[in-house]
């Protein structure tokens, strides 16, 4: 999950709550290592760094099959 720290639509407290909930779900499923949340500086956006991180994560999972 990718989050922007200064997103006005999805505030930090809401992001942190969602992160806790998702982390708990993955932990209960025995798949905690499959979940990752990253918090990036700035307002709502999808930067080149975020894209590279997302594509690397997708690539690592899509190539497993």
Computed structural class: mainly alpha
Number of DSSP helical runs: 2
What's the helical proportion of residues? 40-55%
User: What is the overall shape?
Assistant: flat
Enumerate the spans where pLDDT stays under 50 for 5 or more consecutive residues: none
Number of domains: 1
Question: What does this protein structure show overall?
Answer:
The chain is mostly helical. It has one domain. It is built from 2 helices and 2 strands. Helix 1 links the parallel strand 1 and strand 2. The protein starts with a strand and ends with a helix. The mean pLDDT is 94.
Topology overview:
Layout: E1 2-4, H1 12-28, E2 38-40, H2 48-62
Parallel strand pairs: 1-2
Give a short synopsis of this structure.
It contains 2 helices and 2 strands; from the N terminus they run E-H-E-H.
Describe the structure using short key phrases.
65 residues; mainly alpha; two-stranded parallel ribbon; 2 helices; 2 strands; 9% strand; flat
């Amino acid at each position: 999950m990718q989050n922007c720290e200064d997103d006005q639509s999805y505030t930090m407290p809401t992001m942190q709550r969602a992160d806790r909930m998702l982390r708990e779900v993955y932990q209960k499923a025995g798949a905690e290592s499959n979940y990752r949340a990253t918090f990036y500086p700035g307002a709502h956006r999808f930067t080149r760094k975020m894209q590279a991180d997302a594509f690397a994560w997708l690539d690592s999972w899509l190539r497993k099959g």
